[in-house]
Design brief:
67 residues; alpha+beta; three-stranded antiparallel β-sheet; 3 strands; 16% strand; Helix-turn-helix domain-containing protein; HTH_17
Length: 67
């Protein structure tokens, strides 16, 4: 995933989108989310994992967009 693609993400994404940005495979991403070791904050919403993009950008070392 390019920096431009990450910048265009909505406020919250699913776990696999975040994993793709971090270059983490599916099995590893779910294992890290379950144990609380995913590289950025993960929210459990119902039966799904959601990742706030602000935390994803921080994990990638990207500045938060102004505005």
């Amino acid at each position: 995933m390019t920096v431009a693609e990450v910048a265009a993400l909505p406020a919250v994404v699913d776990l696999m989108t975040a994993a793709r940005a971090l270059r983490i495979g599916r099995t590893t991403a779910y294992a890290l989310a379950r144990t609380g070791d995913f590289p950025c904050p993960v929210l459990r919403v119902g039966g799904e994992y959601r990742v706030p993009v602000v935390g994803l950008r921080r994990a990638l070392g990207l500045d938060e967009p102004s505005g």
